[in-house]
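Thread title: Can someone regenerate the structure for this chain?

I was given the following input by a collaborator and told the matching structure tokens would be attached. They weren't. Posting the sequence so someone can regenerate them.
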Amino acid sequence: MTAPTRPIPQPGILDIAPYLPGKSGAPGSKTVKLSANESPLGASPKAIAAFAAAAQHLEIYPEGSSRLLREALGEVHGIDPARIICGNGSDDLLHLLAQTYLGEGDEAVMNRYGFSVYPIITMAAGAKIVMVDETDYTADVDALLAAVTERTKVIWLANPNNPTGTYLSDAEVRRLHAALRPDILLVIDSAYAEYVTAADYSVGLDLVGEAENVVMVRTFSKMGLAAARIGWMVAPDHVNDAIHRIRGPFNVNLPAQLAGAAATRDVEFNEKLREHNAKWREWLTSELSGNAMRVLPSQANFILVLFPDAETATRAFETLMAGGYVVREVGKSYDIHNGLRISIGSEDAMRGVAKILKSMGPAQ
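Best answer:
Regenerated them for you:
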């Protein structure tokens, strides 16, 4: 056997398809970025001020447990701060959960069009990802349960889901949980919870308080602090104990902690952002529905537009790009080749996108 001539990654690592972020437009071009579900109103002014003030203390290590941020989250959301763990974005926490609860021979179950990070973190932990077909682009509880085997250790559930914007009601999430073995961890990824307007939705916090095998994960990225990379989760004590054993000791930097705390308490700004999103999500959905386009009902800060075929979707993407709007292609990442995900942006951006897509003629 020939000896290796360079370091070799662990088995399975090179089988992982890397995460593909949304495009930002061509270098030097003036485009409106609608590909990453970022805040169209920027960040909370209070968060910006707190971030700037932190620059006076860059020589100091951040407090290791993100205490000030956890206290703000506990205050606003009615949670015991001791049950909250913060991370360098929610991806950091999802990775930690996978490393803690998955290993060689294990399986994790997700819906077909669930967040593309789930396969990455599952396979990186040495486990197998099991993708389950959906019903009309919505997670199917019965199908998820049918995929559970003795090897299943984690269920990944983005609710609302990225990139479809669809969601499961609180009753359906509870039905899913009730049928799981107690040793299976249900991870409810509520990254877009702030934008939900459906009356039958729940972020999952109540279920976390009632069960020993449920975790809720959240993020600040969709609420104006994507650059700061702040995520947080609420979990049972035994899960938190395990995560703390492998969590980086300073995994949330000081400016992020202070900005996150200020953003959490800026309820007025957060409500303004939520109202803006609800108004223009509904408007854009109404404007684009029909005209050979189908818009999935969304509860997030984006919509997924389905075209008759992949060629039409590509033409729509290129036409929007030429018009100054960059949206998210979801063919390579999610195998929805006839779809485009469009973030909810400013009023001008929404009107511009609608005008371009509605004016597209039939394929040549």
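DSSP finds 13 helices and 13 strands in the chain.
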